[in-house]
């Protein structure tokens, strides 16, 4: 069980690993869709799919882990609307980090090109069952693609909002919201940033 003031090391590892992979995923996704017919495009698509499945598996693991312990309470001085906003943002994060890889998987499974997914060039990953055999798979793929595209922008915006809120709490509210998720080796530096 975690302490009352900090997330435990497992929760922190899930948080920062998924965060790093999401940033990589968004950058790769942007570049691979704007680079035309570059020979690098196929490789980026495979990396994008590999990281997406990794995020899906880690997110399911994180969600399962989340049910095994109680997260540290938010600061008592935090206004109720901020607590509700924080809870809503976390729920939306889970919806996006699980839903986006699933929509990507649907897109790949519905693609008429039937390009295989090889995770990190090593592990074959199957298409979703049934979808490749459906007569309307093209329409399903287009719908999944639209959801995936808009969800990516929503996720990028939510990341900026989340990071901004964490820094606002740290530098202006001077509470422990950022510290409780930050790795221990960063605590001295974070205290230094606010003159402590």
Task: Produce a short descriptive summary.
It contains five helices and two strands. It is mostly helical and 196 residues long.
Explain how this protein is built.
The chain is mainly alpha-helical and 196 residues long. Strands 1-2 form a two-stranded antiparallel sheet. A hairpin with a 3-residue loop joins β1 and β2. The two termini are 29 Å apart.
The H/E string reads: HHHEEHH
Count of individual beta strands: 2
Estimate the mean pLDDT confidence: 90
User: Which stretches are low in confidence, meaning pLDDT under 50 for 5 or more residues running?
Assistant: none
**Cα gyration radius (Å):** 19 Å
Task: Indicate the structural class.
Answer: mainly alpha
| Strand order across the largest sheet | 1-2
Shape: elongated
How many helices? 5
State the end-to-end CA separation.
29 Å
What oligomeric state do the depicted chains represent?
A: single chain
Largest sheet: 2 strands, antiparallel
Strand residues, percent:
under 5%
User: Helix fraction?
Assistant: 55-70%
């Amino acid at each position: 069980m975690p302490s009352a003031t900090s997330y435990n090391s497992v929760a922190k590892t899930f948080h920062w690993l998924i965060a790093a992979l999401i940033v990589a995923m968004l950058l790769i996704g942007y570049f691979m869709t704007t680079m035309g017919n570059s020979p690098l495009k196929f490789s980026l698509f495979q990396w994008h799919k590999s990281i997406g499945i990794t995020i899906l598996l880690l997110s399911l693991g994180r969600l399962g882990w989340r049910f095994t312990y109680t997260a540290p309470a938010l600061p008592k001085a935090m206004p109720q609307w901020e607590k509700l906003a924080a809870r809503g943002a976390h729920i939306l994060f889970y919806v996006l980090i699980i839903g986006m890889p699933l929509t990507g998987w649907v897109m790949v499974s519905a693609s008429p090109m039937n390009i295989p997914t090889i995770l990190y060039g090593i592990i074959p990953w199957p298409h979703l069952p049934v979808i490749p055999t459906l007569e309307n798979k093209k329409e399903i793929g287009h719908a999944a693609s639209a959801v995936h595209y808009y969800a990516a922008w929503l996720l990028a915006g939510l990341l900026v909002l989340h990071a901004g809120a964490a820094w606002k709490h740290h530098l202006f509210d001077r509470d422990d919201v950022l510290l409780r998720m930050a790795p221990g080796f960063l605590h001295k530096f974070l205290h230094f940033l606010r003159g402590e």
